[in-house]
């Protein structure tokens, strides 16, 4: 305040205009804000699926580890698939159940982006593992004489390194780009999990490049895997149709039947999720959220069950394991 003659001039300083907003240290996950009443019923379903997935995958992993006859490349790839399922389960479902049961909506800034990275990278790792398994079946049926020399333990180790390196490196920029956004003290995420688009939406920066990178990376990884899987099974079907021995075609198809069922289910659920996200304005916003959670839950629960039911060697191994107990 200062005076000039008889006039008194008062200057006020607006601290809010110059003081930056405090950085966001955590996010709040708001699950199904329009359907709070049935969250307990959904939590019961998710709990059962979680226990089923963890129990089935653990049984499958222990069976393959203890049964010497299952120490083959095909079952090693199946073990890799189960490990990916277990990690996805532990990354997503416990936090969702904590929100439903204990209203624990807060998730740390770093924890949110770690969850985002694991979900994006491990989902594409599953797709890539399905692609490697399709190649395994292609060699087994179309070039059976070369199978022992092509599909070796060294091939499985190299394939596992390729699966982890390719998908981990190409999906890593997604959470990095989201974490570098300015959130302007806005930390409400209208989702049960830290997906890229849900987390980026409340930021006050332009997220065009963020969305574009996820779109290109996602379709490049998943799309290339799907194309190679389709080519592998087209060659398998073509080779099977040429088999003239009675019953040989059915036997050949049964060896990859479990694999094909899981790929079909994985791709179908993913396709439904993509369509619902594209048609977001025409459907309730909670539907894509629910489908996203179920996509991380149902395939991991079904994968070991389908293989356990349809594969004779695994079924016998599980029976031996149960007798030991």
Automatic annotation (TrEMBL):
<keyword id="KW-0716">Sensory transduction</keyword>
<keyword id="KW-0812">Transmembrane</keyword>
<dbReference type="GO" id="GO:0004930">
    <property type="term" value="F:G protein-coupled receptor activity"/>
</dbReference>
<dbReference type="GO" id="GO:0071396">
    <property type="term" value="P:cellular response to lipid"/>
</dbReference>
<keyword id="KW-0472">Membrane</keyword>
<keyword id="KW-0675">Receptor</keyword>
<dbReference type="InterPro" id="IPR017452">
    <property type="entry name" value="GPCR_Rhodpsn_7TM"/>
</dbReference>
<dbReference type="InterPro" id="IPR000276">
    <property type="entry name" value="GPCR_Rhodpsn"/>
</dbReference>
<feature type="transmembrane region" description="Helical">
    <location>
        <begin position="113"/>
        <end position="135"/>
    </location>
</feature>
<dbReference type="GO" id="GO:0005886">
    <property type="term" value="C:plasma membrane"/>
</dbReference>
<comment type="function">
    <text>Putative odorant or sperm cell receptor.</text>
</comment>
<feature type="transmembrane region" description="Helical">
    <location>
        <begin position="216"/>
        <end position="240"/>
    </location>
</feature>
<dbReference type="InterPro" id="IPR000725">
    <property type="entry name" value="Olfact_rcpt"/>
</dbReference>
<keyword id="KW-0552">Olfaction</keyword>
<keyword id="KW-0807">Transducer</keyword>
<dbReference type="Pfam" id="PF13853">
    <property type="entry name" value="7tm_4"/>
</dbReference>
<feature type="transmembrane region" description="Helical">
    <location>
        <begin position="75"/>
        <end position="101"/>
    </location>
</feature>
<feature type="transmembrane region" description="Helical">
    <location>
        <begin position="41"/>
        <end position="63"/>
    </location>
</feature>
<dbReference type="GO" id="GO:0004984">
    <property type="term" value="F:olfactory receptor activity"/>
</dbReference>
<dbReference type="InterPro" id="IPR050402">
    <property type="entry name" value="OR51/52/56-like"/>
</dbReference>
<keyword id="KW-1133">Transmembrane helix</keyword>
<feature type="transmembrane region" description="Helical">
    <location>
        <begin position="252"/>
        <end position="275"/>
    </location>
</feature>
<feature type="domain" description="G-protein coupled receptors family 1 profile">
    <location>
        <begin position="56"/>
        <end position="307"/>
    </location>
</feature>
<protein>
    <recommendedName>
        <fullName>G-protein coupled receptors family 1 profile domain-containing protein</fullName>
    </recommendedName>
</protein>
<keyword id="KW-0297">G-protein coupled receptor</keyword>
């Amino acid at each position: 305040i200062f005076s000039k003659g008889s006039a008194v001039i008062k200057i006020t300083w607006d601290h809010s205009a110059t003081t930056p907003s405090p950085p966001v240290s955590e996010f709040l996950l708001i699950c199904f804000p329009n359907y709070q009443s049935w969250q307990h019923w959904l939590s019961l379903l998710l709990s059962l699926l979680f226990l089923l997935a963890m129990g089935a995958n653990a049984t499958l992993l222990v069976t393959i580890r203890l049964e010497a006859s299952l120490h083959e490349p095909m079952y090693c790839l199946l073990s890799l698939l189960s490990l990916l399922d277990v990690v996805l389960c532990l990354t997503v479902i416990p936090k969702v159940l904590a929100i439903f049961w204990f209203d624990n909506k807060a998730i740390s800034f770093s924890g949110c982006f770690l969850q985002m990275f694991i979900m994006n990278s491990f989902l594409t790792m599953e797709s890539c593992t399905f692609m490697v398994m399709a190649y395994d079946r292609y060699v087994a049926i179309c070039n059976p004489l070369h199978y022992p020399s092509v599909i070796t333990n060294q091939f499985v180790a190299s394939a596992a390194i390729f699966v982890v390196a390719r998908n981990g490196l190409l999906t890593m920029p997604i959470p990095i780009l989201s974490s570098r956004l300015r959130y302007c003290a806005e930390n409400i995420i209208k989702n049960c999990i830290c997906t890229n688009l849900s987390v980026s939406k409340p930021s006050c920066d332009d997220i065009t490049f963020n969305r574009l990178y996820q779109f290109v990376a996602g379709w490049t990884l998943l799309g290339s895997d799907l194309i190679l899987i389709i080519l592998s099974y087209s060659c398998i079907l073509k080779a099977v149709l040429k088999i003239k021995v009675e019953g040989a075609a059915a036997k050949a198809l049964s060896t990859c039947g479990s694999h094909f069922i899981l790929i079909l289910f994985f791709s179908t659920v993913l396709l439904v999720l993509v369509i619902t996200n594209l048609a977001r304005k025409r459907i309730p916003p909670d539907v894509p959220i629910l489908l996203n959670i179920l996509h991380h839950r149902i395939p991991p629960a079904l994968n070991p069950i389908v293989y356990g039911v349809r594969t004779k060697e695994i079924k016998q191994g599980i029976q031996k394991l149960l007798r030991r107990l």
